Amino acid sequence: SKYVYTFGGGKAEGRSDMKELLGGKGANLAEMSSIGIPVPAGFTITTEVCHEYYEAGRKLPEAVKPQVEESLELVEKLSGKKFGDSKDPLLVSVRSGAALSMPGMMNTILNLGLNDVVVEGLAAKTDNPRFAYDGYRRLIDMFGSTAMGVDHEHFEHELTKLKDEKKVKLDTDLSAADLKELVKRYKAVYSKHVGEGFPQDPKDQLWKAIMAVFNSWMGNKAVQYRRIERITGLKGTAVNVQAMVFGNTGGNSGTGVAFTRDPNTGEDVFYGDYLINAQGEDVVAGIRTPEPISKLDSEMPKVYQQLMDIRKKLESHYKEMQDIEFTVENGTLYMLQTRTGKRTGSSAVRIAVEMVKEKLIDEKTALKRVNPDSLNHLLLPQLDPKAKVKSVARGIAASPGAACGKVILSADAAVAHHEAHPNDPILLVRKETSPEDVAGMHLAKGILTATGGKASHAAVVARGWGKPCVVGCEGIVIDEKGGKLTIGGQDVKVGDYVTINGTNGDVMIGQVPTVDPSISGHFAELMGWADKARTLKVRTNADTPADARKAREFGAEGIGLCRTEHMFFEGQRIVDMRKMILADDTAGREKALAALEPYQREDFVGIFEAMDGLPVTIRLLDPPLHEFLPHDDAGQQEVAKQLGIPVEKVKLRVEQLHESNPMLGLRGCRLPIKFPEIGDMQVRAILEAAIEVKKKGKSVLPEIMIPLVGTVEELAILKKRALAVAEEVFKKAGTKVEFLIGTMIEIPRAALTADQIAEEAEFFSFGTNDLTQLTFGFSRDDIGSFMPAYVDQKILPVDPFQTLDQRGVGQLVEMGTERGRKARKEKHDQHLKVGICGEHGGDPESVVFCHKIGMDYVSCSPFRVPIARLAAAQAAL
Ligand code: ADP
Ligand code: MG
Ligand code: MG
Questions:
Q1: How many domains in the chain?
Q2: Same structural domain for residues 324 and 431?
Q3: Which domain holds residue 212?
Q4: What is the whole-number distance in angstroms between the Cα of residue 243 and the centre of ligand 1?
Q5: Which of 837, 840, 851, 860 is catalytic?
Q6: ipTM score for this prediction
Q7: pLDDT tens figures, 180-215
Q8: % of the chain beyond a pLDDT of 70
Q9: Ligand with an atom nearest the CA of residue 255
Q10: Which of 20, 264, 464, 623 is deepest in the core (most CB within 10 A)?
Q11: Does residue 285 register a pLDDT over 70?
């Protein structure tokens, strides 16, 4: 079979749609080569080889060897140089590249083919011994550390030592003789740690490097990255072997990385960095501070113009924003990589909308281009414009949004801190970040680095995740060992609060207040297209008028879940609630309930007003009563004092209410079954509020939702009672409002007997949190101890409380919907309205499922409403 694909000289055997086989890098190098973009010649060993390599216990298939030899000859022909030649040598890079980009996660080795003899030839040929020896020492370092497992620090140590001896600050200040000396020392480091000399046979180097790339596929960094990014199902990495071009031959050479549009804002400007006289990773490594790409226009006008042309050509060819790597060797431009550029949510929206205007793509494509979750980014808190912001330092704005957290100075410490204090916001502050840091970075609210540019590791990764990030903040001096730092000259300790503004690069000491953003401009336009495309409605979970208003701004088409218990916790309310719970008899309870009723009514009035014209689903009291009572002595003393009763009585009642499994105990519809007066009060408050708001000329559509129903009888009893209360209310008011009575389907038995339940229920709302809990037998509050192991061992693909388990819980949802709808139609000739109100209502994958099974709506938290709108549109496309 064909294991190797060549590219170069305006031709290629591969294409951009062969990413599975050639990896993203290989496929796009091929594509660029065949559309006439200058790319150094090379070849790609397929991901299939990687797969077979692991299948065979880390052995390459035999047939790879001759194919590589043959392809290498072609590269030699195209470049006019020979690999291992001592006069005019061809050098190559060996580069990783899987189907999905995993920036910096796997190994790349540059300058392969140099040895003690070849380096002399290269020095003579280029008349540049400094360059030749610099290349050689980099090769020994990269090859030693990535292929042979020598700690890079050992090489770095020699470099620093030599610079000290020579009393120079920059690598570039070292002379040719110095670098020759450095090569000697690097070779000694290599021999000491590997146990044999640095390989002098270029072919030997090449094969070891190829194996090293394949090995890096299963390296820690790569495995961890795939886990965090939930990347599964890939064959492996491809290996690209490519003729080297040199950005480090002098002032007429350089290297850079750029985006065809601004990946932060989406603005249609060329965006990136470059360094003169530099090679490979120098730009992203944050060692030297790179120049903005616009400056290249004055430094190398011809090259800049060529780059601008390529930028246009790539965008019109790929119809997508591209992230590119290039190198200039003695004034000649070469492209080394192109791929779809990672971008922030806001940038994704702007680019998609503007590309429709430019007629590069259509509206449907635009909708598909934006990852619903990435909208999070546009909904991130921003610094309150009214807040007093005293910026103590400013860095480069790398990923927008404001983040505030406790300073932690290493990724490992962030992981440890998170384990100990899962709710603490963390701000990770580092000199720079590297791929080892991803786990800690992932946990942080925001990332701040002292060095690095817009394309540095921290910036790229943070943007991908939609995390606020400021990089290259030179006003920071970190003392990691001492657990402290200074920002703009001011002392800060680990654990102190620091705030960053990733939108403009500001760094502030302390906590600065933030505000929520709104939907406008490109975002509003895209959401308009989404609304045209979708059929699934989107409601919100909101318990207060403020949340309801916010959700409406974000496009909510009603409330799918209003939790009444949240209203009982504030101020005087909790006192009355406790009186109700502690009452000895019905009369006592009724008295306390009468005190609570006005509060409830007021809250409902506010919510109905905010949702004028839209349906509002209100769930009756759901949690176990003990949640309203304090469990510690001090708290119980206080309650006793507040209520004027002996503390023993409080304690006794707490004891009586104690349950072994409160989540399976006296809660949900079981409460009004046992204490009907509680339900009566709530129904009365809802309907009286509805009448009041209707009298003000507004339109109210209340839906009373009874939680935790498992049998139709429960629902029948409570519905009958609610209807009786309604009649009373309407009679007293002399007017009526339309309303529905329905139920949550959150107990597996309810889903199984949905046909019976639908005879009573006028709507279903799937409470998938409890339904997941009860179907799996997982206590939602206790999964922390085992869920990571379950996901690691692939028992479950993801936490089923985040993304609906379609195979299991989803079956109950689908079946319940079908049976319920059918029965309602047959018995009452009515359409049964069905929705979902668990966390899943705002999870894009779960939203797609809800669309597929024909639900009427999903309901989610206000900030996820736009995300659900877009996900619903994508589901309908
Ligand atoms: P990554 O996937 O981590 O970006 P790359 O394979 O793209 O790794 O290579 C790392 C760096 O080396 C990049 O800056 C790239 O442009 C540079 N590089 C790779 N191959 C060559 C080559 N043949 N000539 C010059 N520079 C190269
Ligand atoms: Mg790499
Ligand atoms: Mg790259």
A1: 4
A2: no
A3: 4-246
A4: 11
A5: 837
A6: 0.96
A7: 999 999 999 999 999 999 999 999 999 999 999 999
A8: 99
A9: 1
A10: 264
A11: no
Ligand nearest to the CA of 256: 1
156 or 287, which is more confident: 156
Pull the structure tokens for residue 811. 């079956």
User: pLDDT tens across 215-262, in order?
Assistant: 999 998 899 888 888 888 899 999 999 999 999 998 999 999 999 999
Ligand closest to the CA atom of residue 239: 1
128-132 LR contacts (CB < 8 Å, sep 24+): 128/249, 128/250, 129/176, 129/180, 130/175, 130/176, 130/179, 131/246, 131/248, 131/249, 131/250
Domain final position from 485, 515, 545: 515
Q: How far is residue 118's CA from residue 141's CA, in Å, rounded to a whole number?
A: 17
pLDDT exceeds 80 at position 88: yes
Residue 577 has pLDDT above 80, yes or no: yes
Catalytically annotated residue among 377, 418, 442, 457: 457
Residue 464's pLDDT is: 67
Catalytic residue at 837?
yes
The 10 Å CB-count burial string (b at 16+, else e) for 201-233 is ebeebbbbbbbbbbbbbebebbebbbeeeeeee
How far, in Å, from the CA of 102 to the mean position of ligand 2? 8
Nearest CA to ligand 1 atom 20: 93
Q: Judge if 547 and 495 occupy the same domain.
A: no
Question: Which residue owns the Cα nearest ligand 1 atom 3?
Answer: 104
Residues with CB under 6 A from ligand 1: 40, 93, 95, 103-104, 108, 110, 242-245, 280-281, 325, 327, 336-337
Q: Is residue 610 part of a domain?
A: yes
Beta carbons of 101 and 31 less than 8 angstroms apart: no
> H helices within 554-585, ranges in order?
571-582
Residue 295 C-alpha to ligand 2 middle, in angstroms?
Answer: 27
Distance from the first to the final alpha carbon of the chain: 38
Q: Is residue 642 part of a domain?
A: no
CATH of the domain at 598: 3.20.20.60
Q: Which of 488, 515, 542 is the last residue of a domain?
A: 515
